[in-house]
């Protein structure tokens, strides 16, 4: 099946003009097709109002290096602790996902909330899917964070996802290559509207 980039761009443009309900529907569909769970599932947050998800739109199974966090006593400063990260073999684990179907670039504030959510949930792989690009500040922040080789972030443009041009470094999707399935599902729904 050949994917027409103009059809994909038309679909994304229409989606940008869509209602919040339409955007949420497609967001959940993408997460489900990637083998994930689109049900907001957050820990250690006080009761909240509305559909607040604490920065995560869902969780996706990925195969990535196991990260083990050790808390060690600091012998130089009493009553303090140090943190040591151990990087292990590739294992099946959850990645946090954040999908933004909006007319603005993904902002540094949005990224900060997403990274905080990953830390809170003890997730070390973050996937960001956007209709537009990342802001320059976010690109630089991701580059800086990834130098420590603890967190892995991937940015995928919605157009690229629908075109089947999914390129990520440092992990693999557990579901394999399902880009044509995602496009087929999106196309079916697009033709119904």
Can you walk through the features of this model?
The protein has 193 residues and is α/β, with parallel strands linked by helices. It is built from 6 helices and 5 strands.
Gist of the model:
By secondary structure, the chain is an alpha/beta fold. It is 37% helix and 26% strand. Strands 4-3-2-1-5 form a five-stranded mixed β-sheet.
* Global geometry: elongated
Order of helices and strands: HHEEHEHEHEH
> Mean pLDDT, rounded to whole units?
82
Reading off the top of the CATH hierarchy, the class is best stated as: Alpha Beta
Helix content: 25-40%
Detail the poorly predicted runs: none
Q: From the structure provided, what is the oligomeric state, counting identical versus distinct chains?
A: single chain
- Beginning-to-end CA distance, first to last residue: 22 Å
The appropriate CATH architecture is 3-Layer(aba) Sandwich
The profile of the biggest β sheet is: 5 strands, mixed
Q: Give the count of structural domains.
A: 1
Cα Rg = 18 Å
The percent range for strand residues is 25-35%
Explain the layout of strands and helices:
Layout: H1 5-16, H2 20-33, E1 58-73, E2 81-100, H3 108-121, E3 125-130, H4 136-146, E4 152-157, H5 158-163, E5 172-173, H6 179-192
């Amino acid at each position: 099946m050949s994917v027409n980039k103009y059809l994909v761009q038309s679909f994304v443009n229409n989606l940008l003009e869509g209602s919040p309900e339409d955007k949420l529907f497609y967001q959940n569909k993408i997460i489900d097709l990637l083998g994930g769970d689109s049900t907001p599932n957050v820990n250690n947050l006080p009761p909240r109002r509305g559909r607040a998800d604490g920065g995560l739109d869902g969780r996706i199974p990925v195969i990535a290096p196991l990260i083990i966090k050790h808390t060690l006593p600091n012998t130089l400063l009493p009553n303090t602790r140090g943190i040591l990260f151990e990087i292990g073999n590739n294992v099946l684990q959850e990645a946090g996902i954040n999908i933004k179907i909006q007319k603005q670039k993904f902002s540094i504030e949005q990224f900060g909330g997403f990274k905080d959510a990953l830390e809170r949930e003890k997730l070390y792989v973050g996937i960001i899917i956007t209709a537009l690009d990342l802001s320059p500040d976010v690109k630089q922040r991701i580059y800086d964070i990834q130098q420590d080789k603890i967190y892995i972030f991937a940015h995928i443009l919605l157009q690229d996802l629908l075109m089947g041009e999914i390129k990520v470094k440092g992990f693999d999707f557990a579901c394999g290559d399902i880009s044509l399935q995602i496009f087929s599902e999106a196309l079916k729904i697009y033709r119904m509207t």
